[in-house]
Recover the amino acids of this structure.
């Protein structure tokens, strides 16, 4: 996929980065102060989980008129679900079939759920995004990094560009080339198991059906804004890559670009990618190497991902189960990224 090249970065860009760090610092302080005073965070009302507990995914900021609840996406986004999407969804742990159900209203808004009455399962849909994970189910390193991604989500794209600039890599060229390696065909159903802020959207073919899952509600919120700006189409889901809410053999392409280094259970996530992929599908995984982690852990803001990382970054080559075909591993950009691809057998 090429080698690192020096990327020109204007001074205003770095000035903006420094300003963002200052804003984040003040915001973090305000978060802590409001938490002490009881003003933040506020929980979403009327959303109950599969065990009857209230969901705490939807966060608000402040009180009174200035404290409008910060939901995923905007209020004018339709919550209707395509028949094709409903047909491939299942509960993430039991893999039980789900059906769409409207159950009452909250503040004048219809409450929609994905349910399976036989198993007593009920997953809320908030602003068109099904919530397949409850806060108490997010444990270990996943929980730590979910909080990091939620906090930095509004500034993540800037942080990513700065980090790649430091490494001498063009993000635009990197993502364009990466998407090309996915070999997406017209009409393909494509799944990103960590969609993040949707930075791949500009490079995806317009004639594919794109599905994105992420553990961070903050990242999904940014992704929805980006979708509106780009007039892009995608189905988004809140969930864990280790427990995908999709039926077996549902996707033509499955990929994970970044983030898997920080998964609680990498092996399970890879097995889930294989499970939901159709026979013959290409599966691609890419992330940074230990070399990059050691470089970025000294950069303010970006070091939030690396400064307390005790588990060494080891590409999961040995976690690919036997029987997979066309297995390929390589290191890119002067050893700054690892790339792993393979196919599920026909």
């Amino acid at each position: 996929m090429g080698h690192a090249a020096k990327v020109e970065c204007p001074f205003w860009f770095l000035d903006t980065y420094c300003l963002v760090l200052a804003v984040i610092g003040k915001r973090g302080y305000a978060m802590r102060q409001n938490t002490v005073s009881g003003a933040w965070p506020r929980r979403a009302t009327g959303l109950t989980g599969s065990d009857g507990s209230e969901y705490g995914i939807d966060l608000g900021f402040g009180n009174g008129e200035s404290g409008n609840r910060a939901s995923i996406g905007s209020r004018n986004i339709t919550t209707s679900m395509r028949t094709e999407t409903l047909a491939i969804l299942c509960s993430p742990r039991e893999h039980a079939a789900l059906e769409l159900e409207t159950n009452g209203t909250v503040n004048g808004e219809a409450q929609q759920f994905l349910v399976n009455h036989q198993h007593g399962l009920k997953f809320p849909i908030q602003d068109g995004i099904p919530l397949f994970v409850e806060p108490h189910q997010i444990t270990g390193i996943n929980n730590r990094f979910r909080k990091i991604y939620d906090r930095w989500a509004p500034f993540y794209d800037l942080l990513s560009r700065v980090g790649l600039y430091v490494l001498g890599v063009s993000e635009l060229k990197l993502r364009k080339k990466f998407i090309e390696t996915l070999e997406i065909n017209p009409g393909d159903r494509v799944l990103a198991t960590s969609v993040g802020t949707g930075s791949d959207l500009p490079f995806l073919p317009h004639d594919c059906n794109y599905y994105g899952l992420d553990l961070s509600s903050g990242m999904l919120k940014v992704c929805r804004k980006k979708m509106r700006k780009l007039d892009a189409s995608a189905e988004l889901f809140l969930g864990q890559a280790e427990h995908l809410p999709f039926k077996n053999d549902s996707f033509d392409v499955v990929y994970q670009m970044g983030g898997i280094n920080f998964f609680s259970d990498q092996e399970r996530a890879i097995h889930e990618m294989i499970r939901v992929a159709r026979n013959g599908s290409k599966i691609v995984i890419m992330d940074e190497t230990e070399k990059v982690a050691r470089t970025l852990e000294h950069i303010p803001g970006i070091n939030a991902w690396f400064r307390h990382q005790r588990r060494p970054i080891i590409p999961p080559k040995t976690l690919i189960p036997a029987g997979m075909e066309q297995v390929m591993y390589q290191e890119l950009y002067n050893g700054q990224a690892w790339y792993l691809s393979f196919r599920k057998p026909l």
